[in-house]
From TrEMBL:
Pfam family, one: Methyltransf_16
Taxonomic classification: Eukaryota, Metazoa, Ecdysozoa, Arthropoda, Hexapoda
CDD domains found in the cross-reference section: AdoMet_MTases (cd02440)
Name the UniProt record assigns to this protein: Methyltransferase-like protein 22
Superkingdom of this protein's organism: Eukaryota
Length: 276
């Protein structure tokens, strides 16, 4: 069964993020993910010789406790490449002032990495994931570890894509949310269907709202098609096409700066969906 498959994120072989720090759980590891953090929106200033002077970004790290490998049902306990691309986008938006005063909600936050980046710029961050495998406790551990970076109000709440009967606390936060973010939540058709239903209900709750979704196309070769296809991504597009809503749906170019250390592979895609 798919739920019994063991998977390992590709990023662990691309760069050495590992540290010797002791995790809270012996089966976990602690990694440091470096990134560049611009001080503020770029301003043209001149030094005493009238030469153009640029302020260099600072070098920062996000320290994350995570699993090195998991069953597929618990992939949120690992760190995946899409989190870095979404982190890049959040820094890009933040530097340009587009997150100031905003409430951001992350779906399927996993270890919390991109929520912590959002917390550098937003007024409030609501970090959510399914209450399974101790993932919410892990987010809280990681939030404490990165508290110096997080400038916003930061809360952690359970949100299960398969349960649209939200409790009062979650519903209140969703009502007040301006921007939703999600990365690497497409890995199973049932989860994908539930995710799209969740997105639809959130975007239609007290609009306007905007969601940024980062996905990595994962290709497999099939005898049926006699070629490599990305079935989970195709399912996502098909489900999105069936949604009957007055939305603005855009696939955005990845032409913003790269702040995190990772391979920005061609399989990464970024979607922006806005409700009116």
């Amino acid at each position: 069964m798919m739920s019994e498959m063991t998977v390992v994120s590709e990023i662990y072989d691309e760069y050495n993020y590992r540290t010797d720090s002791a995790p809270s759980r012996k089966e976990n590891v602690i990694s440091q993910f470096p990134f560049l953090l611009p001080k503020e929106k770029a301003k043209h200033t001149f030094d005493e010789d009238d030469d153009l002077d640029f302020e260099r970004p600072s070098r920062e790290v996000i320290k994350i406790e995570h699993s090195f490998k998991t069953k597929i049902a618990l992939v949120g306990l690992q760190v995946w490449r899409g989190a870095f691309l979404l982190g890049d986008l959040l820094i890009h938006l933040g530097v340009n002032g587009e997150l100031e005063g905003k409430t951001i909600l992350e779906l399927g936050a996993g270890t919390g990495l991109t929520s912590f980046v959002a917390g550098i710029y937003a007024k409030k961050v609501v970090c959510t994931d399914i209450d399974l495998g101790g993932i919410l406790d892990l987010i809280k551990i990681n939030a404490r570890c990165n508290s110096k970076l997080i400038k916003s109000e930061f809360i952690v709440l359970p949100l299960d894509f398969t349960n649209l009967n939200w409790n009062a606390a979650l519903f209140k936060e969703i009502q007040q949310t301006d921007i939703i973010i999600a990365a690497d939540v497409i890995y199973d058709d049932d989860v994908t269907s539930a995710f799209v239903s969740t997105v639809q209900k959130i975007l239609d709750t007290n609009p306007p709202k905007t969601i940024y979704i980062v996905l990595e196309k994962r290709y497999v070769f099939t005898i049926e098609h006699m070629e490599s296809i990305a079935p989970c991504y195709e399912t996502f597009l098909a489900l999105l096409d069936k949604v009957k809503c007055d939305w603005i749906v855009e696939q955005l170019p990845l032409n913003f700066p790269k702040y995190f250390t990772y391979d920005r592979v061609k399989e990464l895609v970024l979607w922006k969906i806005s409700s009116k």
